[in-house]
Fold this sequence. Notes:
The chain folds into two domains: 110 residues; 236 residues, Bira Bifunctional Protein, Domain 2 (BirA Bifunctional Protein, domain 2), CATH 3.30.930. The chain has 13 helices and nine strands. α4 runs antiparallel to α5. It is rod-shaped. About 2% of the residues have low confidence.
Amino acid sequence: MPWPGAAGTLFLMTDERTPVERTLAELGATSPEAIAARFAEVRARFDAETARLAPCDLAAWTAVRNAWLGRASGVITAIGDNWLKPATPEQKRVVGKSLNGLKAHVERTLEELRARAEAAGDAGPAAAGGSDLSLPGVRRALGTRHPIRQTREELERIFRSIGFSVVEGPEIETPYYNFEALNIPEHHPARDTMDTFYLSLPKGSPELLLRTHTSPMQIHTMERQQPPVRIVVPGRVYRRDNPDSTHSFAFHQIEGLAVDTDITFCEFKGTVEYFVREFLGPKTRTRLRPSYFPFTEPSAEVDASCFACDGRGCRICKHAGWIELFGAGMVDPAVYGFVNYDAKRLSGFAFGIGVERMAMMRYGISDIQLFYQNDVRFLRQFE
Ligand code: PHE
């Protein structure tokens, strides 16, 4: 039988039996002192083995218990068979007493270890060495969609519901798509390096920049397809703005473009009003204010009646009763010239909505920087 814990130990002995497999006579332990010494050895061995047990390793605990208390071949049984039974009547008193003492010590120690493991929260069926399948699994905390993502998806949903499809475009653009084809000529102030991020490229390579708006996708789309066009383009845009509570060097827009043979200012206004009511509630009123963009004519700023005071005037709308939402207008016929569309036959409208701005209004957020800091205390409010 194995001598518990003896694995790996090399005994240079001709008799390979462990001490508890031999009789006391064979071991030469006949005096009470010699017998006590043998018991002390066994006990020290047990203490060393249990001291090595990891607190929650129930498989190892079970192995130790079986090796020492196993009915058929445990150490305690072996001592009873080999030391006690063959002993002389005088020896029996000493051996019997020592064996009882050893057995009590082994049982008590193993029981204490089991209780300790249980207190550490790992007992029950697992004590048998398996897993407790009735315990709940390890739950991985699910994140939430960022409020910008949620707002973008809501905007997409609204425009999808009236026949727009969603397309995306590159964030790196040529000046042609970002400016020229949108009727923003070479000398226009928006092209200043102060306003735009240009990529630093080897001398002689064509200029590239980070798009300052999603409008370049108007051009890409009209180059690729013939009317009717009804698209929205969500995506990230870049400007050389210093960060403050309403500015960020990177933010998001959703561009809209509708071009067909029979689109009038009525379709433009109807679409804008539908969007505003869907996004801000059915009672919201819409106002178009004259504005200017090189690629729309006429151009407008779309305002909504203040969601906080319903137009009566309050601090949020700075007592105007109206809040500016986004820029829009009828596509300037000059733009059709860049994409080989027939300006005499076609007409359309476009808009560019700031996603952060919409999210700030909807959730009452006063600082745009909160969206980018990714503080979970902020983000968890949008679960
Ligand atoms: N591209 C414009 C901007 O970023 C917004 C806009 C888009 C205005 C489409 C009119 C039509 O300010």
